[in-house]
Structure formats: C-alpha cells, structure tokens
C-alpha cells in the first residue's frame, strides 16, 4: 500500500480560485496521477487558512489575505464529486486550540493533519517580513520554539497526523543551524506524538525545497520508529505532477529505518497496512 494524504488541489499561487481547482475534472487529474504512481489511498487536505471560517480562529494578515473559500462547500465537493479521502491541513496556533477544535468538529473528516507553520506571529516557511528568522536571535531559540510547538500540537488531540515534522529546516544552509545535536529537539516531540497516539508524516515535500531533504531527517524518523510512533506517507503535492514525488527515495529511507507498515485513515480511524 502507498498513500498520499497530504495533497492540495489548488496551488498556493495568488489568483488561483476554488472555482477553478475544486472541480471533478481537477480531482480526476490527481486520481490518474495516483494510479500511474501506484498510490492506492489518495486524499486531499486543503490549508485551513484558505477558508473564511479560519478567520474565526485566527486573524493573522497572511490568513486574512488567503481566507476566501467556503469550508462547507469544499467538504461537500470532496464528498459528493470525488472518491478522494477528505482531510484538512490545520495549523497549530498556540492559544487558538478551542476555536480550531470547534471548526474541525463541524465536519466528518477522514483525517486531520496538524502543521506548525507559525511560531507566534512569525512563520518558519515564509520568506518575507513574517519570517521567524528575522525576529529571533538564535538558531537554538527557533528550533526549540518550533519543536515545542510540534509537541504541543500533538498533545491537543485535534490531529491524526503530524505533518512535515522538521519543517524548521526548510531553508537548509540559508539559515543558521543549531550547534546542539538535533536529537535534543526531536525527543520531546516524539514523546508527545507517542503519548497522543498520533501518526508522524514522512513527507517528500522537503526534496522540492531549499533543504533538498525528506521531512523528517533520518535521525528523527529512527527515533519515531524506535518509539513505536505510526508513520504516514505523503508528498504535500500542490499539483498532480507532484503527487508521490520522490517516493522511491522515501521508500528506501523508510525501509532502512525498519518501517514495514503505513498508516491508513478512514473516518478518523487509523489502521496499519503493509508498506510498498
Ligand atoms: Zn504545511
Ligand atoms: Zn500542505
């Protein structure tokens, strides 16, 4: 079994609209690509910040700029016009847990993906004035804050999958790296995922980013596997071409780390299936 659950039907580029991308024809392009690449379990997980309902949760300028779609209509579209599993990528924003839980509770998802993109008002993956690296003094601080937030996200109980678990490395050598062994940062996050009973995502999206590496780093994946955290596999595709991108490399890494089973989701119930 191969999965791709962390998938966006609509690219992040400005000007793309739900009317153009939340269509049966566009979904079909993804299904065809999945079939070609041997992905049996395909689901979509649009960014929560794309939906107007997200502004009841958080009013960050980036969200205000992006929140234009109707969440109910997205859910209805996926359920009624496609065979895709229904998911959503919902940020963990400290202090908004109750509001985000209310938003998520309104729909019957197959899975909810939790992401840490923001630390306070600042982002780990946006290269503009909101970039956390322009506001923090040290790599140690950024990494510590990122992995603390990751642990907290797992412990909210809102999520089935913790996405791109070491996203903080996205810029690669273009940002400073902490001098400590990264395992120091990974460990509490892995413990939290284990305690919360959530799956950790292995994402090939990092291969397409400046860091040029799968999320997470091998050392973090090994820790998760040793601890017994279930592993989910996705590409974070924003186009059909990126579906299952780099899976050969992911399968090699997963195999090396002793992962034999992969998490599969339906109506927020997880089961494990043989990987491959
Ligand atoms: Zn993300
Ligand atoms: Zn995503």
Summarize, please.
The chain has 276 residues and is of the alpha/beta class.
Describe the structure.
The protein is an alpha/beta fold. The termini are close together. It is globular. The chain has nine helices and eleven strands. The strands form three sheets. It has a seven-stranded parallel sheet. A two-stranded antiparallel ribbon has the order 5-6. The longest helix has 17 residues, at 139-155. The structure holds zinc ion (2 copies). One zinc ion is lined by residues 89, 115, 117, 163-164.
Bound molecules: zinc ion
Determine the oligomeric state from the structure: single chain
Q: Find the structural class using helix and strand composition.
A: alpha/beta
Strand order of the largest sheet: 1-2-3-4-7-8-9
* Largest beta-sheet characterization: 7 strands, parallel
Mean pLDDT: 97
Extract low-pLDDT stretches. Answer: none
Work out the helix count: 9
Distance between the termini: 5 Å
Helicity level: 25-40%
> Using DSSP, what is the number of strands?
11
Given the C-alpha coordinates, what overall shape results?
globular
Radius of gyration: 17 Å
H/E element string?
Answer: EHHEHHEHEEEHEHEHEHEE
What fraction of residues sit in β-strands?
15-25%
């Amino acid at each position: 079994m191969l999965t791709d659950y962390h998938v966006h039907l609509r690219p992040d580029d400005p000007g793309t609209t739900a009317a153009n991308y939340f269509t049966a024809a566009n979904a079909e392009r993804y299904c065809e690509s999945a079939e070609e690449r041997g992905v049996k379990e395909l689901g979509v997980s649009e960014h929560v910040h794309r939906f107007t309902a997200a502004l009841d949760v958080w009013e960050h300028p980036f969200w205000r700029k992006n929140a234009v779609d109707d969440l109910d209509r997205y859910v209805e579209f996926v359920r009624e016009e496609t065979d895709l599993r229904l998911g959503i990528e919902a940020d963990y924003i400290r202090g908004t847990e109750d509001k985000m839980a209310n938003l998520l509770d309104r729909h019957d998802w197959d899975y909810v993906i939790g992401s840490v993109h923001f630390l306070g008002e600042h982002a780990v993956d946006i290269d503009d004035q909101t970039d956390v690296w322009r506001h923090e003094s040290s790599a140690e601080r950024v990494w510590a804050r990122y992995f603390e937030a990751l642990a907290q996200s797992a412990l909210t109980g809102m999520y089935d999958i913790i996405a791109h678990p070491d996203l903080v490395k996205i810029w690669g050598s273009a940002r400073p790296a902490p001098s400590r062994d990264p395992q120091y940062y990974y460990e509490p996050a892995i413990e939290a995922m284990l305690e919360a009973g959530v799956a950790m995502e292995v994402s090939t999206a990092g291969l397409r980013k400046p860091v040029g590496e799968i999320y997470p780093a091998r050392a973090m994946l090994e820790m998760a596997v040793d601890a017994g955290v279930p592993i989910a596999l996705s590409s974070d595709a924003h186009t059909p071409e990126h579906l299952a991108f780099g899976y050969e490399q992911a399968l090699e890494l997963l195999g090396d780390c002793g992962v034999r089973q992969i998490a599969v989701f339906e109506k927020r119930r997880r089961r494990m299936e043989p990987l491959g």
